[in-house]
Amino acid sequence: MNLQKLMSKARKAIDDYNMIEEGDKIAVGLSGGKDSMTLLAVLSGLKKFYPKSFDLVAITVDMGLGLDQKEVDAVSEFCRKNDVPFAIEKTAIGEIVFDLKKEKNPCSLCANMRRGALNSAAKREGCNKVALGHHADDLIETFFLSAFYESRISTFSPITYLEKADIAIIRPMIYLREKDIAGFSKNNPIIHNPCPADKHTNRQFVKDKLKEMEKHIPDLRKNVLSAIIHPERANLFGVNNKQDEKKEGLYVD
């Protein structure tokens, strides 16, 4: 899918849930994966003609696990070409999670700490919103994660205000499928995830099981997404989902 089509779907989500207001300064959580890099390109493109004026800054949280400097430089250049300031928030999250805490299931703690670091950096940059690269497949997978592991019918919201952090989280790509993003991002630079727990999570388990189920129900994801977002059905976005911000793997790429 080309950038124009990606922007069209993202704009619909932004308009449907009133994600962007005049004068917003939005921090893009730039992990460096395909999703966040696509989000940056989409918002940078929309900024040029969207009727409400807004500013962007890209922030990468360095967990202290060792980023490839050549990859970081390539991402920095990508931001420059898109006229978006780029900042790196250095942390010791990796050392705390894996060496000090020695977490057997590190994803939840890591996600909380990365989110806290990102929100703090965003506030320091003068931002009132943080944009995350969650797409439709993340929305669907989180729905099943909540049902399977928490006995709850829930998922994250398109926009969530975090009172404690005094910042709003927006997810402009919830109408985009992962396959659409993957097609666009082939030529974009990425920062490979250095986390040793990557691909060994409950989220990956659910992702794999959904792929198996799709062999028998080709429209599985389409139907589940429709059940979640359709305004005439049981819309989960009307429920207070602040606690969902703490769940495993929501800061993903």
Task: Summarize the topology.
Blueprint: H1 3-16, E1 24-29, H2 34-47, E2 54-62, H3 69-81, E3 86-90, H4 93-100, H5 107-124, E4 129-131, H6 136-150, E5 159-162, E6 167-170, H7 178-184, H8 202-214, H9 220-229
Parallel strand pairs: 1-2, 1-4, 2-3, 4-6
Antiparallel strand pairs: 5-6
Helix pairs in contact: 1-2, 6-8, 6-9
Question: What report would you give on this structure?
Answer:
This protein has 9 helices and 6 strands. The protein has a 6-stranded mixed β-sheet with strand order 3-2-1-4-6-5. α2 links the parallel β1 and β2. α1 crosses α2, α6 crosses α8 and α6 crosses α9. The C terminus is likely disordered.
Which fold name fills CATH's third level, the topology?
A: Rossmann fold
- Rg estimate, integer Å: 17 Å
Give the name of the CATH superfamily: HUPs
DSSP E strands, number:
6
User: Numbering strands along the chain, what is their spatial order in the largest sheet?
Assistant: 3-2-1-4-6-5
Biggest beta sheet attributes: 6 strands, mixed
- Tell me the span between the first and last alpha carbons: 18 Å
Topology pattern, helix = H, strand = E: HEHEHEHHEHEEHHH
Q: What is the approximate shape? A: globular
Helix content: 40-55%
What's the domain count?
A: 1
Average pLDDT: 87
- Total helical segments: 9
Tell me the strand percentage band: 5-15%
CATH architecture descriptor text: 3-Layer(aba) Sandwich
